[in-house]
Amino acid sequence: MADDTTAVVWDKALLDYDMGDHPLNPVRIELTMALARELGVLDRPGVQLITPRPATEAELTRVHRADYLDAVRQAPIDPFFLGWGLNTPDNPVFDGMHESSARICGASIAAVEAVWHGAARRAVNVAGGLHHAMPARAAGFCVYNDPAVAIAWLLDHGAQRVAYLDVDVHHGDGVQAVFYNDPRVLTVSLHETPLALFPGTGFCDETGGPGAEGTAVNVPLPPGTGDAGWLRAFHAVVPSVVRAFAPEIIVSQCGADAHRLDPLADLQLSVDGQRAAYIAMRALADELCEGRWVAMGGGGYALVEVVPRAWTHLLAVASGEPLDPGARVPKSWQKFAADRRPGTPVPEMMGDGTPPPQETWSPGTDTDPVDRAILAARLAVFPLHGLDPHDPRD
């Protein structure tokens, strides 16, 4: 394994996944890569830039139905196209939809391939993370499900235990659905409660299908959860189930929309809290699977204020030394961002000035709604892994 190498998968063509006047604006990816470049993250000695190819038909149909692929190709040339979740406000059609979606899947395949074959210890595709797409339906701004396609590639190339960690504010429903009955894939999702937010799934009792019990783990959190509660929930659930599963590789979806400034959801994380989550996921990969970690982007709709900083921290954590949240954002990038999104506030610091507190969960603290959610998640899934839901050491 190339111990000091991080593969960053990038091509400007990934910006072609563009739904027009829509919350999922590719400018957030453009600004992320520009900020990482300005701060020298992409020039670190161990960073290897990889140009992806589009996923093939065979790779896509490991997850998606062939007739759905045909529909995705047809939809942009038929103004009256209906069905398959396409041509809706959430999932408008656009020129080159199949090609750009296949390229994002190809980028995530390139990331897992580099790590699985030992060319890199870690890999990042910030354009990926489209976790809501179903085998025969677009959903939640997602046409093809690149995390699922990439995990299927791993399974086809010999992986027996893949852990998927999803920290997007929305439940990682598409990836969970694809692998719900597959004991080789552990899906773990921390998200805002489905009682309050799309897609309406991700309850604690969704724990995996027959023969795969315990391989779906869900931690639905109440609106208003901030850094302290979110990180307490992460550390009270995620490390234990991932250690019990003993993965060969960890794949993460790192949506930035749990931030307090995100316009589409109601969690209250800071960039500093998101950075702490990335560090924790890298540490798990180092502990359990020789550092093999693939990180993807995902949601995030504070296009200037949050996403570029969060994912620049992600790129830095993946490639070596984490960036100081107290560092100033380069003025050159501030000008670039202001030119690209006139009228949008531009951040001045790489963090939000709120170092996340270090809190641990303990049983009996169920007066707090976050702690009730933690206990519910542990009760649902810990026994399926031979863990004691009431023992904080598990």
From TrEMBL:
Residue ranges of domain Histone deacetylase in the record: 22-316
GO biological process, one term: epigenetic regulation of gene expression
Presence of keyword Nucleus: no
Pfam families, sorted: Hist_deacetyl
One Gene Ontology MF term: histone deacetylase activity
Entry keywords, A to Z: Acetoin catabolism
Pathway(s): Ketone degradation; acetoin degradation
Region span, Disordered: 338-369
Homology family: Belongs to the histone deacetylase family.
Name of this protein: Acetoin utilization protein AcuC
